[in-house]
Amino acid sequence: MEYTDENLRIMLEKLLEVNPDIQGAAIISVQGLPICFMLAHNTNEELVSAMIAAILTMSEHAVKEFIRGDLKQILIEGNEGIIILSKVGEEFILCKLVRSEASSTLTFRTFNNRRGPPGVKDAAYVE
Q1: How far apart are CA 6 and CA 14, in angstroms?
Q2: Over the Cα atoms of the chain, what is R_g?
Q3: Cα separation of 104 and 80, whole Å?
Q4: Share in percent of the chain as helix, strand, coil (round to 5)
Q5: Which among 126, 69, 114, 62 is positioned nearest to 88, based on CA atoms?
Q6: Strands (E), 1-127
Q7: Residue 83 Ramachandran class (φ > 0 left, ψ -120 to 50 alpha, else beta)
Q8: What is the pLDDT along the chain (127 residues), one digit of tens a residue?
């Protein structure tokens, strides 16, 4: 399957549709390039993408340094909500913006996919 902007947009729409606690989502390359965004219109996609890739890289280094195994996901909690970052394959990062009141384990579960780019379709799947 070829992953076009339209395919990725549909996947993110499905993710937002199946879980109302998720307020926004984006797919970013591990190099920090914006791939597909469904966030607020005033979001600086280039800046956010670069920050997310840097956070992921630093977190992976920290997990290895502290001998904690493989990085599964990153949770960043603020007063107004939670940011969940999950690596998808070796090329992509899924970013989810979650309401602070979210308590469902469905919201916080991540999919385990180390197969590579074809796994991006799993971004729309919620366990």
Answers
A1: 12
A2: 14
A3: 17
A4: 35, 25, 35
A5: 114
A6: 22-29, 34-38, 73-78, 81-88, 92-98
A7: beta
A8: 556 778 888 889 888 888 889 999 999 999 999 999 998 778 999 999 999 999 999 999 999 999 999 999 999 999 999 999 999 888 899 999 999 887 655 555 544 444 433 444 454 333 3
Residue type, 65: E
Residues 6 or more apart whose CB falls under 8 angstroms from that of 123 comprise 11, 12, 15, 25, 27, 88, 92, 94, 111
- Across-strand partners of 22? 98
Domains of the chain plus CATH, in order, are 5-120 (3.30.450.30)
Side chain identity, residue 93: I
Any idea how long the chain is? 127
pTM for the whole structure: 0.79
